[in-house]
Specification:
two-stranded antiparallel ribbon, alpha+beta, 2 helices, flat
Length: 92
């Protein structure tokens, strides 16, 4: 069975891309200190509202939000993302 259904990307390419591009903390090259951001492994962007805010359905006329949903492959290692979310390191 394919890793991601309905994808033109071959499984072998996806596995290699996830191996060579795991979740990582972005670090200041001069100081070696984390900058508070992460890079992700390859994923899909779904239903993005990144250029215009989505309407606020609960409060029509209220301020909408910019958002995006990331869809990770089923075997992606999300440990670092989970640690950051639990520690309050991610701001949304």
């Amino acid at each position: 069975m394919a890793i991601m259904r309905n994808s033109r990307i071959p499984d072998a390419w996806l596995q290699e891309a996830m191996r060579t591009n795991p979740f990582r903390r972005i670090v200041d090259k001069a100081t070696g200190q984390p900058l508070g951001s992460l890079t992700t492994c390859p994923c899909r962007l779904s239903y993005p509202s990144i250029f215009q805010p989505e309407e606020n359905r609960l409060n029509p006329g209220g301020k909408g939000k910019y958002k995006a949903t990331l869809l990770f492959p089923p075997n992606a290692d999300l440990t670092l993302l989970q640690q950051e979310a639990l520690s309050g390191g991610l701001v949304g």
